[in-house]
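Continuing from the previous page...

OK, I double-checked the sequence for Diaminopimelate decarboxylase against my notes and this is the correct one:
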Amino acid sequence: MKSERLVKIAEEFGAPLYVYDSGKIKSQYQRLTNAFSGVKKLRLNYAAKALSNLSILKLLNSFGSGLDTVSIQEVKLGLLAGFAPEKIIYTPNGVSLEEIEEAAALGVQINIDNLSLLEQFGHKHPDIPVCIRINPHVMAGGNSNISVGHIDSKFGISIHQIPHLLRIVELTNMNINGIHMHTGSDILDIDVFLYASEILFETAKNFKNLDFIDFGSGFKVPYKEGDIQTNVEELGKKLTERFNQFCEEYGKDLTLAFEPGKFLVSEAGYFLAKVNVVKQTTSTVFASIDSGFNHLIRPMLYGAKHEIVNISNPKGRERFYSVVGYICETDTFGSNRRISEISEGDVLAFKNAGAYCFTMASNYNSRYRPAEVLWHDGKAILIRKRETFDDILRNQVDTKDLFQPKNQKVAVK
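Thanks. Re-ran it with the corrected sequence; updated structure tokens here:
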């Protein structure tokens, strides 16, 4: 989006503010569907955890997307947004049997990633179709926190536990209708992805009634101009050929499923924040904004590098700044960044703020979470109100007279 448009949106709705471009989300969805157009049955299940605003979910539903969920709350949001239960897959980790049963009662596709719950669920509900999440023991991803398919990961059932898995399925007479994996996020090497896929194909041969194979996601998007990214077109060509070959060997046209999150919404998002103070020290120029890692934690949590631009002065002389927040501890968005000259009151835009940004926001320091706006069909539409002090107090219980200040005697000299 152009700087002038973002400035006007900031003027209308205030800052800090998240803005999402629906057109970019749509083009990314179409890019992925085009890459796998050679597959007879394709299902893109949008990963709700990336950005779970109801309006975004409704937008993806209008494209024909399915939904990937990791909690019962995300399942309920998906149903509220209009997704049919059979188009929602529920892939939790470390939850209770009761939560899995609650999701199953809503009619969504269950995906189980550990042997204990698989056995418990199979004993009680052998007729409910279940997908199994496999850990292929493949290290992939741009950060240790988002690499989830390696041998030390808490996610998935190890490929070395397949014999135990098959025994559970046989003894409970469960209906296994899907196989799933997810190796990590920000995957660049498609050969690593294809290697893991071969492990999934080999595993799938053990199950005779599959409807789909879910290959997860983790496609890397560019974070700056000229940045490297996953070549989904090349992956689509190679995996489509291999998938169709497997379906022929299997004797059935299965559905190829993915669960893209960041790929669909990351580049569509912008985080806008106003500069409160420009502070010169002996070694650095700080641009302090009216936000912090309570609104955008990825730089502090993952070391993520979001491009930062001064949309109030986009053509100004570039200088070096360290952009920091107002939180009561080290709170750095970017160090020594070349940004057009910043004045107090300017609005900065953080790019790639569509995925895992607002959804990870908090009320740390008792600050309000920001508003969200969708740019759709040439209009800026408010899709989440800015929080107020009432929201901070909403679920707190007033203990009234439980604590009374002690009367202190004043010594008179």
